[in-house]
Amino acid sequence: MKIAIETSVKAPLSKVWNAYNSPADIQQWNAAHESWHTTRSEVDLREGGRFLSRMEAKDGSQGFDFEGTYTRVIPNELIEYELGDGRKVDIRFVETGEQVLVKVNFDAESENSAEMQRQGWQAILDNFARHVEVKG
Amino acid sequence: MPPELSDAELDRVFHALSDTTRRDILSRLGGGEETSISALAARYDMSFAAVQKHIAVLEGAGLVTKHPQGRERIVRGNPERIARTRSVLAQLEELWRIRLSQLDKLFSDHTNQE
Q1: What pTM does this model have?
Q2: Is there a contact between B77 and B64 (Cβ–Cβ < 8 Å)?
Q3: Residues near A124 by Cβ (< 8 Å), separated by ≥ 6?
Q4: How many CA atoms lie within 13 A of B100 on its CB side?
Q5: Pairing of strands A88-96, A78-83
Q6: H-type alpha helices, A22-113
Q7: Is the pLDDT of residue A131 over 60?
Q8: Distance between CA atoms of B77 and A114, rounded to whole angstroms?
Q9: Residue A14: half-sphere exposure toward Cβ, Cα within 13 Å
Q10: Min Cα–Cα distance to chain A from B54, Å
């Protein structure tokens, strides 16, 4: 089962694309909750390239790596990647007037409810939109 | 300290520990280090279903817990379960040590009488 989420960002497409893929930006937006942050980010944005985001609780009590492999990259348009458990994810960047729609489709896993998964992914995407707009 | 582990719980713990992959998974956790199920699946040369099964065995034994975090399912170690298992082994060791020293005493008393 696929779950779809999206956000719209008031910023030029190139800025949205760059913020989504640059490690310095990822460290600022990639967290589902304010008590977490990304302390390190590696991005090899090409088909077959890998990404890794080191996620840690801000109090240092917990941490893990979020990592995967890019399977398709079309600049300013599309990213597809696969996580280690085989879940596939695609992200589309669609320019609509002065905004960019970022649409994410991801394979659901079977252990947690779809609603819980949607919330987790949406929280991170909302953080991304906020980060780009504040950055200007 | 919470109550001791039941025999059924101990059986599950030792069964969970009797596998190289599962011990390897445990060795990656601890000290606040967690791991995502995705990362574990990528690390081992086996199917995702097989990795999932190993995690389920560890979870059933109370050695790890799972919870969602953002885009991932996270596996966290439960050090308390290891500590309680360790105390079971320590008790066994102590029992043997006492019996051995009693045996030693018996032998030395016997020798002295001769």
Answers
A1: 0.82
A2: yes
A3: A29, A30, A31, A32, B70, B71
A4: 6
A5: antiparallel
A6: 23-29
A7: yes
A8: 25
A9: 0
A10: 14
| ipTM over cut 0.85 | no
The pLDDT tens digits for B3-50 are 689 999 999 999 999 999 999 999 998 777 888 998 898 889 999 999
Q: Which of B31, B15, B10 is nearest to B76 (CA)?
A: B31
Neighbours of A33 (CB within 10 A): 14
Q: Residue A116 is encoded by which pair of tokens?
A: 């819980």
* Token digits of residue A18: 């760059």
Pair of tokens at residue B49: 């279903």
> Is A63 in a helix, a strand, or coil?
strand
> Most A CBs within 10 Å: which of B51, B72, B73, B75, as the mutation test of the A interface?
B72
Nearest-neighbour CA in chain B from A94: distance (Å):
22
The pLDDT, as a whole number, for residue B4 is 84
> Of B82, B38, B44, which is closest to residue A55 (Cα–Cα)?
B38
Reading the block at residue B103, the tokens are: 């045996």
What count of CB pairs under 8 Å joins A to B? 76
Tell me the average pLDDT of chain B.
90
